[in-house]
Amino acid sequence: MSPFFVMSLLFGLTFGQTASLCAPSEYTIHVEKRECAYCLAINTTICAGFCMTRDSNGKKLLLKSALSQNVCTYKEMLYQTALIPGCPHHTIPYYSYPVAVSCKCGKCNTDYSDCVRERVRTNYCTKPQKLCNK
Per the database record, which ranges form the Glycoprotein hormone subunit beta domain (predicted)? Predict the structure, then answer.
């Protein structure tokens, strides 16, 4: 085999790996309601990872279609519901959350995704914690 072919093959394999780093990833959500006695720690999956992005310094010279701002987002998802323990009878004790089944690189859809940078870390419990494995 020629050195050019080997280098091309290695480049293709390397690029293929970097382009496919968007995948479901384990994540823990902490959920609590003021009326309930416990905080629920829910293990789920979210979409996370790297997507190729093209953004040129010459934005004025290029068409918008040449610029790409892709994010790792849901391709398929389903919703599951958990019961928050220690809630009084007059409170709805259920919490529904998304579970990533598969992911893709694409435009961020604000209907079901947070498309801004994380500002403040608020994923913690202030009450005693119960774990929910799904």
Answer: 21-125
Write down the CATH number for the domain with range 19-126: 2.10.90.10
Please state the domain extents for the chain: 19-126
Instruction: Report the C-alpha gap between 40 and 21 in whole angstroms.
Output: 30
pLDDT tens for each residue of the chain, 134 residues long: 565 544 554 454 455 444 458 999 999 988 888 899 988 889 999 999 988 776 656 556 666 555 567 889 889 999 999 999 889 999 999 999 999 999 999 887 777 666 665 555 556 777 777 666 55
pTM above 0.70, yes or no: no
